[in-house]
Amino acid sequence: MYGIIATWRMALEGVTRADQMLKDHADAGDAIEAAIRDVEDFEYYKSVGYGGLPNEEMQVELDAAYMDGDTFDIGCVAAIKDFANPVSIARKLSKEPVNNFLVGAGAEKYAHKMGFERKNMLTERARIHYHNRLKEVQELELKPYSGHDTVGMVCLDDNHHMVAATSTSGLFMKRAGRVGDSPISGSGFYVDSEVGGASATGLGEDLMKGCISYEIVRLMKEGLHPQQACEQAVSRLDEQLKRRRQKAGDLSLIAMNNKGEWGVATNIEGFSFAVATETEAPEVYLVKFDENRKQYIEKASEEWMDNYMRTRTAPLERK
Fold first, then answer.
1. What local confidence, expressed as pLDDT, does residue 147 receive?
2. Does 201 participate in catalysis according to the annotation?
3. Which of 73, 100, 247, 262 is the most buried (most CB within 10 A)?
4. Beta strand 162-168 with 62-68: parallel, antiparallel or unpaired?
């Protein structure tokens, strides 16, 4: 059995590529890296990689992580600038005996030494988003932080090897040097090939408060199905944050166990995810809520899919 699950519609093309690789008996690590690189390279996805939204100083700082579920090897980079495909840098770091988490200038020096591609990650489209948001904040008193959709994935190959990985540009107009949950083990991601894996997207500052990816894997280890584990972990953290802090940020999680079974849970409207397994073709689903606030999952319609790409690739004008 093999499978891959990922946060957001933007992962579909990568998941489709990984699905074909897994059919051809590729290693989970190779499949997940290829899948995330597809997202990083597409400039119209404005929360990951090339074209990612900049910080308050109009610099694109990227975070990424990679974890091997067999060995627990972990590699992470944070606040790295001017390098393409941070997920590949994170994977390379996971092979190092020490110094597995590098940030800022240190991560950039390592990437340069290892021969990774230098690239200006700030696109003209991202500049327009930045200037338009500045104007909106000034005129409408809006909060600048909007657009924090991490691509997170969990992958299982037919040798029962599991991996997890993440990549993001973080909060739009964040402070320079800000790091969220995405490269943090146990918060943005966690995987154990003997159990399963999970990955998160949402407000990193709140996701980190619950070490939620590790919690989902822990619940699966106790015997819960990935769907039950996701729902339990998300609802508990959401409730705790509201009780102790009177509010909870966006919390969305995906998970897969070592049988290829998957689950997803969120506390927001509009969360989408992509999944493919040996018995399921690559597909995008939406998480919705009924009148009693009970979560259910629905296949994304062709109209929704068309509108998604149309809005993300529509021409932009500076306001």
1. 62
2. no
3. 262
4. antiparallel
Q: Alpha helices, DSSP H only, in the chain? A: 12-23, 28-41, 86-94, 104-113, 124-140, 204-207, 212-221, 226-245, 302-313
Residue type, 51: G
pLDDT for position 142: 59
Q: What is the pLDDT of residues 278-301, one digit of tens each?
A: 999 999 999 999 999 999 999 999
Task: Enumerate residue ranges in the chain where pLDDT < 50.
Answer: none
Task: Report the phi/psi class of residue 270: left, alpha or beta, with left for phi > 0 and alpha for psi in -120 to 50.
Answer: left
CA 19 – CA 276 distance, rounded (Å): 6
pLDDT in tens, 215-257: 999 999 999 999 999 999 999 999 999 999 999 999 999 999 9
Residue written as tokens 């950039």? 108
* C-alpha span between 36 and 229 (Å, rounded): 24
**Which entry of 150, 166, 201, 266 is annotated as an active-site residue?**
150
Q: 3-313: which CATH topology?
A: Glutamine Phosphoribosylpyrophosphate, subunit 1, domain 1 (3.60.20)
Measured CA to CA, the distance from residue 241 to residue 249 in angstroms comes to 9
Quickly list DSSP for 215-248: HHHHHHHTT--HHHHHHHHHHHHHHHHHHHHS--
Query: Which pLDDT belongs to residue 319?
Result: 84
